Structures are given as structure tokens and as C-alpha cells.
TrEMBL record:
Domain of life: Bacteria
Name of protein: Four-carbon acid sugar kinase family protein
Species: Teichococcus oryzae
Pfam families membership: NBD_C (PF17042), SBD_N (PF07005)
Keywords, alphabetical: ATP-binding, Carbohydrate metabolism, Kinase, Nucleotide-binding, Transferase
Length: 435
């Protein structure tokens, strides 16, 4: 039986099933792993997985990667609406989370508008609680504006490099998709949960599309989670790993089935770094410093494909290192000429190159969700059963599908120099092998 609610737990019935729609794989896993930490069975899958998969449907927490960050608004919206309809079938009253990037990359407004419209068409209309803050990573929301380390997001170098909107004013962003929204300022977010819940009820009765929720501390998200959890059938949480962690923490811990043992396979761990972010490159350099085999794959080779004479010899060399039981680092070499929109094509080409090696690997560590999804899909994998978080933002799971292998994923733009090293050490420990 679930534990009884303590004084910090919300009153009223709590959801037992969760559906999370995300715009990328690492974000989907970041949200779902928060629930796995509470003892709930959690899995992440992707939009191209076969329909009607009973194994995926059996998990009380299911996160789906829509892989929509690089799509145009109309395509991203259509994909989210289709995934929602598909995965709500068979789930009577799941709590819903729409995961977005905490720095507003991609098409969060168009995706949210399509999700809300699809819910209304299905007779499940909900109020969106937009809370993208992730204080643990320096992302906050103040006065309805996203801030990064205290600076308005639209004034940062990150925004200048990659953004979809003219400003980081969330009310303006929502209005651009035709959504009627109002700000829930910090002083109201910090009210007693009962008073905050009354404000949420009023906004729902007013038929607003969304409330933009300020949050500058973890406690602000915790308060929002406790107030809104009993209203799960009437709200849609929209945010990043911060709100997911707050919602999971407000649930009673579950005592479920013990997680499965990780299978031991003879190959080494394949470490794939598809991100050009500095944090990922620094972690890869630290791993390379230990003497592991290192392969830097030029982007122009991936664009050329199998016709390039270097392709097959390089693939065989990587496969040989993995088959010999050696952890092996593969990177897409930094290419200043490569544009962001080329990422999907490069990930698919890299997956094709690495498929022979990956079929022999004892485990996978992938930085960049697009890369991991492309590679695993090519191997007949359609999802990941999440088991634990080896480091903040680095979930460990077991693949579901034709190949069973432990896998760890990490978003490209965060982490420490030691993240890959420490994650590999944890995996080797769990496998009972020397690191």
C-alpha cells in the first residue's frame, strides 16, 4: 500500500498514472526519472515506436520523445496532438506533463496550443500551468520572464545563438500561438497551498488557456506542485525537469517491483558525444585523457555517407574496439560550418556508421538525445525502462525491444568535466566489472 500523506503532502486523491510529452529524448528522461526515484515504474519511448506496445503501456509513468525541437511550428504542433491522442488511449485519467526546454528552444507555444486543442476535442479540457523554471540549473521565472543566472534570457548569449521568439516574456510567447494567459506572480505562488489551489480553480472556471507561474526557488515549484496535484484531471503542467521533480516529490513513495538486473554483455561501453556544447566537449576530453580509444568523426564524412572510402574502415575499427571490451569514445568533430538544423541528418548518419559496433556493445552513454534515439531505433529498440539517476541529469535505464543493454543519456549543455567518467564508473560497478 502507498504511504500515508504526511504534513507536506497534498490533500485529496493523487494521480496514479502519468503521461509526459517532451520535445527531445533527454528531456523526456529527465522528467520521468524523477518519478522512478519515488519508486514508480517509468519508461521513455519515442514518437516513431510501433503503436500498441503492451510493454510500454504497462508503465504507470510514460514519457514520449516527440523529437520536435528542430521542426517548424506547424509540424511540431501536429506531432504533439497526434502523440497525445495515441497515448491517451487506454489511460483513463492520467496526469499530463508537457515538457519544454527551460530556455524556450524549439516550438513550445505551438506545441502547447495543439495539445490543449486536442484535449478539448477529446472532452478533456485542461488549464496549462506554465512553470519552466529549473532553479537547480539557474533557470528562473520572474514577472513572467525567463531568466538565466539572474539575467533575462533574451539578453544572454544562449538566446542569441538559438531562439524561436522575439522575447522571453512568456505571456507574449503564449499570445503568439493565440493562447489566453495570465501571470501568477511570485507572491501568489508562495501562498498557502489551499489559497493557491483556489486561484487555480478560479482560472480554470474562467476558461483561461494558461497561467504563467513565477518561480525562483525550488520551494516555489514545490508549493505549486502540492497545490495543483489534487487538480490533476483539470490541469496540464508545462515546464522542464524542475516541475517534474517537484510533482514527483509531492507523491507518496511507492514500494514497487524491484528493478531488473542489468545484463552483462562482453563488449565495452560505447560513449557517443553528438553535442557541440562546451560542457559535453570538456567531459569527453576528460574521458579521452584516460586513454580510451577515441574517434572524432568529421561532419563532412557523415554528410558524404557510405560512399566515402573512409566509412567502412572507420566503422570496422570502432566495432573492433568495442568487441575487445574497451570503453570507446566517438564524437562528431566540431564543425563551425554545420548549422543546427543539420543535427537530425548527422545523428542518423552517425547511427548508421555505429550500428555494427553498437550491436556488440555492453552499454551506451549518449550525449544528445537525437543521437541516442537514432542509434537505438536502428537496433530495434523502442524505449528505455528507467532505473536510477547516476548523476543529476544522467538517467540510467535498460532498453526495451530487440536489444537489451544498459543506457545512459545526458543533455548536451550541462554537466561537469567528470560527468562521463563518474557515470561509467557507476555503470561498471552495477555490472560487477572493474571501471
Amino acid at each position: 500500500m502507498p504511504a500515508q500523506h504526511g504534513p507536506d503532502r497534498p490533500d485529496g486523491p493523487l494521480p496514479s498514472e502519468w503521461l509526459i510529452l517532451a520535445d527531445d529524448l533527454t528531456g523526456a528522461a529527465d522528467c520521468a526519472i524523477a518519478f522512478a526515484r519515488r519508486g514508480l515504474g517509468a519508461a521513455v519511448g519515442w514518437h516513431a515506436a510501433p503503436a500498441g506496445d503492451g510493454a510500454m503501456a504497462a508503465f504507470p509513468v510514460l514519457a514520449i520523445d516527440a523529437d520536435s525541437r528542430r521542426l517548424l511550428p506547424e509540424a511540431a504542433a501536429a506531432r504533439h496532438a497526434a502523440l497525445l491522442r495515441r497515448h491517451l488511449s487506454g489511460r483513463a485519467h492520467p496526469a499530463l506533463i508537457k515538457k519544454i526546454d527551460s530556455t524556450l528552444r524549439g516550438q513550445p507555444a505551438a506545441e502547447l496550443a495543439a495539445t490543449l486543442a486536442a484535449l478539448r476535442e477529446m472532452g478533456r479540457g485542461r488549464l496549462a500551468l506554465l512553470a519552466p523554471a529549473f532553479p537547480a540549473t539557474g533557470r528562473t521565472t520572474e514577472g513572467g520572464h525567463v531568466h538565466l543566472e539572474g539575467v533575462r534570457l533574451d539578453s544572454t548569449a544562449l538566446w542569441a545563438r538559438d531562439h524561436s521568439y522575439d522575447s522571453a516574456d512568456l505571456l507574449v510567447v503564449l499570445a503568439s500561438a493565440g493562447l489566453k494567459a495570465r501571470l501568477l506572480p511570485l507572491e501568489r505562488v508562495r501562498k498557502q497551498p489551499s489559497a493557491l489551489a483556489a486561484a487555480l480553480h478560479a482560472a480554470h472556471a474562467e476558461r483561461l488557456d494558461a497561467l504563467v507561474c513565477d518561480a525562483v526557488e525550488v520551494a516555489d515549484l514545490d508549493n505549486l506542485a502540492r497545490a495543483s496535484l489534487p487538480l490533476a484531471e483539470n490541469v496540464l503542467w508545462v515546464g522542464s525537469g524542475g516541475i517534474a521533480a517537484a510533482l514527483a516529490a509531492a507523491l507518496p513513495a511507492a514500494t514497487g517491483v524491484p528493478p531488473p538486473a542489468l545484463p552483462r554483455r562482453p563488449g565495452g561501453v560505447l560513449v557517443v558525444v553528438g553535442s557541440v556544447a562546451e560542457a559535453s566537449r570538456a567531459a569527453a576530453a576528460a574521458l579521452a585523457g584516460t586513454g580510451v580509444p577515441r574517434f572524432a568523426i568529421p561532419a563532412e564524412l557523415l554528410r558524404a555517407g557510405e560512399g566515402d572510402p573512409r566509412w567502412r574502415p572507420l566503422g570496422r575499427e570502432i566495432a573492433a574496439a568495442i568487441a575487445a571490451g574497451r570503453d570507446t569514445l566517438v564524437e562528431i568533430a566540431a564543425d563551425p560550418a554545420a548549422e543546427l538544423r543539420q543535427g537530425a541528418a548527422l545523428a542518423e548518419a552517425l547511427a548508421l556508421l555505429l550500428a555494427p559496433a553498437a550491436s556488440r556493445m555492453g552499454g551506451l552513454f549518449a550525449t544528445g538525445g537525437e543521437t541516442a534515439c537514432a542509434l537505438l531505433s536502428r537496433l530495434g529498440v523502442h524505449g528505455i525502462h528507467l532505473l536510477e539517476e547516476v548523476e543529476p541529469g544522467v538517467p540510467l535505464g535498460l532498453t526495451l525491444g530487440a536489444l537489451q543493454v544498459p543506457v545512459m543519456t545526458k543533455a548536451g549543455a550541462f554537466g561537469r568535466n567528470t560527468t562521463i567518467l563518474r557515470s561509467l564508473a557507476r555503470l561498471h560497478h552495477l555490472l560487477g566489472a572493474p571501471s
